[in-house]
């Protein structure tokens, strides 16, 4: 009997064709709507391989019933949606899709910084609503990006790609990371800073750390209070790193200038979320890696990892 693969979202036929040649492939039949908990549990109990999205929560309880499951390949670089400890205990390999999304995600992060600091969203909204009555000397003035300082929290692959872009804008790069990055210090003249120091000094703060027990709630009321009144905060890795209640207060009371958000504590972010009522928030729906080429490359990595594990080979991008 051929091994069975379940894919939790509808992916392009041409990309999954190689899987179909070798294995029995079942796929959730919608691109827009997430697989139901019921179906996911049923499939986990039966299949040999699972291709998951970052929006699927695969917890210990779900993995209890997995009897044949050998690999979970997550279509994301982040894998906080999967209980990797539980997977490891059951000998299930977990893979992710790094590298191919680095530059695309850095593009989004930098674009979001520009849009937020220069207030693209409120300017466009006003224009579309017919509110552009005349050019005004101080209308829609925001904060400069070029020639300012940026504080990158999390100097991993995407952090470095962001630093490269920042250098092109003549920015001074401060960074905070678990370990010093001497290459980045040389290449981008990046300056290591303790978190508090970075928050006090940066004109723009970009969050690029993964979501872990250590980074959960890392930016709360105390940290936001350290930031400049003119500073922007860009959050593009995972929700839950920034305390959204504290962020709302800081933006509402204008103790920071603006925030650009791609990720949220709850996704999809509820449309009535208080942060979405604020004019100094630029919000996009978790689209860091969303270019056609990159999303296809991520899917390709999932296909390869699943094939490798089911054929008894060591996959690339194994996280446990
Ligand atoms: C990831 O892959 O973890 C990114 O958040 C996708 O945009």
From TrEMBL:
Keywords: Oxidoreductase. Residues 5-319 form the D-isomer specific 2-hydroxyacid dehydrogenase catalytic domain. Its EC number is 1.1.1.-. It comes from the Bacteria. The keyword Oxidoreductase applies. Belongs to the D-isomer specific 2-hydroxyacid dehydrogenase family. This is 2-hydroxyacid dehydrogenase. It comes from Sporosarcina koreensis.
